[in-house]
Amino acid sequence: GPGFISYALARGGYSEETAIAFSREHADENRAGCKDPNNFRTKVGACYGDYTYVSKVLKYYKDLGCVADVSGEWISDKGWKWPTKSGRITGTFDEIHASKPHNAVDIGAMTAGKPGDPVWSMEAGMVTDKTGNVNNGGLGVYVDHGNGIVSRYLHLSKILVAPGTMVTKGQIIGEMGGSNYVGGILNMFGYAVHLDFQIRINDQPTDPMKFFKKNDDPGLSSGGAPTMTNA
């Protein structure tokens, strides 16, 4: 409906993660949708409407032209590695979330709504003591790469490294999920499944897309580039 359309457009276009998030926000309007514990809606806490409706319709189109299926070999002009296999951007750095700048890039799962995609460190560094439960970010990993550069990975379903651990570029540090942490309570289904990826330089949030550029832009040393999803 028009309510969801405007909601999706404000978040860069349709994705199943966006549909799940919209359904969760309107759950009080249709609690009956989650009466059956085995229902697909109940399993992800999306009680309002059918969050799979648009994806079912899109199956009738041969070419969606919007999802990158890659091996995670995108390398930035600084030699940093894109942190997961998916290149489906579901949220941009400049978006406003709850009246505040997003200051990160959201990357959808390879299979929309399915947790577990491996997440790796973009560069060698040390896992910091901020790693663990992150307020409004769920399970998160912070890696200090030196020279004032820190990368952040939020909403994970699993953390696979401990604070103080040295990691290499491309080393798996966690698995993608939709976790959130508010008021001392960890909710593994607080968000639609995605990776919130941020780079901080001298403690200033910096858009990762400034470093991971399109194929025809200068600075990309190998591989393809992430694309904004619009379907």
Automatic annotation (TrEMBL):
Protein name, entry field: Lytic transglycosylase
A Pfam family: Peptidase_M23
Source organism of the structure: Bacillus cereus
Molecular function via GO: metalloendopeptidase activity
InterPro entries noted in UniProt: Cell_wall_metabolism_enzyme, Dup_hybrid_motif, M23ase_b-sheet_dom
Domain of life the protein comes from: Bacteria
Record region (Disordered): 211-231
Gene3D superfamilies, A to Z: 1.10.530.10, Glucose Permease (Domain IIA) (2.70.70.10)
Domain M23ase beta-sheet core residue range list: 101-208
